[in-house]
Amino acid sequence: MMIPQESLEQALKQFFGYDTFRPGQKDIIEKALTNQDLLVIMPTGGGKSLCFQLPALLKKGLTIVVSPLIALMQDQVDSLLDNGIGATFLNSTLNWDELKSRELAILNGKIKLLYVAPERLLSEKFLFFLDRLKNSIGISGFAIDEAHCVSEWGHDFRPEYRKMILLRYRYSDIPIMALTATATERVKEDIVKQLGLQNAETYLSSFNRPNLYYEVRPKERQSYNELLTYIRTNKGAGIIYCLSRKNVDELTFRLQQDNISALPYHAGLNDEVRSTNQNRFIRDDVRIIVATIAFGMGINKPDVRFVIHYNLPRTLENYYQESGRAGRDGEPAKCILFFTFSDIKRVEYLIDQQSDETQQKISRQQLRKMIDYSEGTECRRIIQLSYFGEKFKGNCQNCDNCLQPKPVEDWTIESQKFLSCVARTKERFGITHIIDVLRGSSKKKIMQYGHHLLSTYGIGKDRTVEEWRMLGRSLLHQGLISETTDGYSVLKLNKKSWEILKKERDVKIAVTLSKKDQLLKEYNLKNAEGEILFERLKGLRKYIADLHSIAPYVIFPDSTLRLMAQMKPQSLTQFANISGITEYKLKQYGEQFLSEIRSFCQEQTLPIKLPSDSEMITLSLHQQGLNVNKIAEVRGLAISTIYTHLSNLIEMRQPVEISHLISVEKRQEIVKVIDVKGDVSLTPIKEELGDNYNYNEIRLVRSWWRKSNRTC
Ligand code: ADP
Ligand code: ZN
Q1: Residue 46: CB within 6 Å of ligand 1?
Q2: For residues 131 and 47, is the Cβ–Cβ distance under 8 A?
Q3: What are phi and psi of 113, to 5 degrees?
Q4: Is the CB–ligand 1 distance for residue 327 below 6 Å?
Q5: Of 257, 322, 495, 556, which is most buried by a Cβ count within 10 Å?
Q6: What is the model's pLDDT at position 243?
Q7: What domains appear along the chain, each with residue ranges and CATH number?
């Protein structure tokens, strides 16, 4: 089928509301329309789904999407339905009636995309159903999502994926598109082989995710406070990864104590709790998920704004995939890694527990890479992308090392002090003890060994413990000192150490910024007005989502809300022009969002008036349930003054309960008159209403009328 160039863009706008394709999407879609087998490798958030969804809509017949996780299926189907696209899934959560009615809808050609799990796909019964479909409405293609699951070399091998080669035998003329975010050569070859792809073209897009900001922070004693400040000063949903279940539970508890909306997720919780916690996160009912690495595979929440690793990941690939769960929507998001030496020890310990020696060796190399990344002073993307065989030129301007290059300082003298202390203590101690000696600590252990008598005792008081630790780490990583791997981490001098002591070698280390400087950078002052409207639109989205029991981002992604907040459309036509708005969405939600934006704009043009102290006291008594007469009595003020207060408070949008002040019937009568006469003074309204109404009541209702009429 030939599709003219411009109409692919039109179709993109029509079905998904986007104006432009993400890198690679268009080529892939064009190829898919020629019915070839394809292997698509794109990083998380690259926009893989669209690569099979759009062709499915443009081709005749039904596309079968194989997806390993029920939650993912549900999510994608919800999103498609919300774009007015015929999509459905068949899985074990449906009862017989639901299954039958869905099958009927499929046979009637109402569905363009059908999601199934591999187990079902390969059942005898389902294959017959497929035959029937092929001969009636036609099957336009198979899309195999998370295709790395066929490979033992990938991280989530699933045996049932292996049987899928049957599709190639049975339906040799129907194209298969395999999709994954795992890029290693082995996995790639395996996918082609195990799925029996024919002359498949491979699309490998760059693994660079320009919208993600990468940062590594030293983890110190107060790092919990730092984490807390981070969460409080950054907006949006976040994931925090920890190494163990225990860490997860402890951290969640602390955050909850500090009034952060957080829930745990790890393999020790039962299925039900896990899926509830996950769903609450997806639906923005909870802001933070604290998790072990078990969390993430089934999540395609696109608007995760930050991923924090509170413990060291074991491999750079893990780090890339886990941190990559941030910012799938292409909006700016942050990936922060807290790095501490003791975590390295923990991971090393775990590696030592492995029985297979070659595996241990691989793990050690992987850990080494992870440490290189964490301690690196060059652009973070260079090390990260080299892991995937990509050459990156550096200077990304979106990582800590590019934005705040760490000053490199000459610490030769400090190094000499440190190393000679190691020598004087006879190379029998670890870093902590060396620092204690340098800083002149009076710990019992020092006295026991007589180390307070050494010439190096107390010569390092001018530096903090953290600074000495930073130096020790840097010496280790530059190979300027060695350390035993017997579990005791005893420092040993090597050839290079002696060169330093003999003044034959200088030592330069990258110095980390002080905490205060870092915190200051956190407070990025954003466009405050846009930010307020954005939050309000998010509130409206959440409200609508809850009403329909769907995830908020299904309605509009953050990027679309942000555009709304920036452009502040005033008409449906202007609204329709925003990227992400389809005709369908316009009909569904246009009016609601438009009216929220309009009322925001109107409020902005009104001078901001705040209640006076006296008005605030009246408000507080009103909220305590006192009636007007009582408030007047308590305060020693005239009744009419209290009414004036309350009227003003209503106009200032303070929480006054008008139903406690006047009956609904009376209010309606007064409103009727004002609707006709307009916003006039009290006398003409009173004349119209007659003696049954007093000025106080009329003033109150007029304020209420003003407030309501300004918002719509
Ligand atoms: P992946 O499966 O590759 O991780 P998704 O298919 O889930 O990524 O897409 C990630 C996000 O990007 C989704 O929210 C999707 O709606 C959005 N997206 C995809 N293509 C585009 C595009 N061309 N323009 C804007 N947003 C897009
Ligand atoms: Zn960089």
Answers
A1: yes
A2: no
A3: -130, 125
A4: no
A5: 556
A6: 87
A7: 5-204 (3.40.50.300), 212-403 (3.40.50.300), 408-510 (1.10.10.10), 528-604 (1.10.150.80), 613-709 (1.10.10.1390)
Give the closest residue to 347 by CA, choosing from 321, 368, 373, 325.
368
Segments of the chain with pLDDT less than 50:
1-2, 513-527, 711-712
- Cα-to-centroid distance, 21 and ligand 1 (Å): 10
Cα separation, 74 vs 91, whole angstroms: 10
Q: For a pocket test of ligand 1, which of 49, 322, 554, 560 has the largest count of ligand atoms closer than 8 A to its C-beta?
A: 49
The answer, yes or no, to whether any atom of ligand 1 lies below 6 A from the CB of 76, is no
Sequence-distant (≥ 6) Cβ neighbours of residue 457 within 8 angstroms: 437, 438, 440, 446, 451
In this structure, which residue's CA is closest to atom 2 in ligand 1? 48
Distance 217 CA to ligand 2 centre (A): 15
Instruction: Note the pLDDT of residue 498.
Output: 96
- The percentage of the chain sitting over the pLDDT mark of 70, rounded to a whole number, equals 93
Residue 300 CA to ligand 1 centre (angstroms):
10
d(CA 190, CA 208): 24
E runs forming strands in 551-655? none
296 touches 325 (CB < 8 A): yes
Residue 238 beta carbon below 6 angstroms from any ligand 1 atom: no
Q: Which amino acid is at 464?
A: T
Residue identified by tokens 């020696």 is: 357
- Distance between CA atoms of residues 474 and 487, nearest Å: 20
Residue 290, phi then psi, degrees to nearest 5: -100, 125
Q: What is the pLDDT of residue 154?
A: 63
Beta strands in 619-662 (DSSP E): none
Atom number, ligand 1, closest to the C-alpha of residue 48? 3
Three-class secondary structure of residue 604 per DSSP: helix
Residues 8 and 150: beta-carbon distance below 8 Å: no
3-state secondary structure of 579: coil
Q: How far apart are the CA of 340 and the centre of ligand 2, in A? A: 21
The reply to whether ligand 1 has any atom less than 6 angstroms from the CB of 54 is no
What are the structure tokens assigned to 44, written together? Answer: 């998380």
From the CB of residue 587, how many other CB atoms can be counted at a distance below 10 Å?
A: 11
Question: What is the SS3 string spanning 27-68?
Answer: HHHHHHCCCCCEEEECCCCCCHHHHHHHHHHHCCCEEEEECC
Structure confidence at residue 485 (pLDDT): 67
The whole model's pTM is what? 0.61
Distance CA 698, CA 687 (A): 11
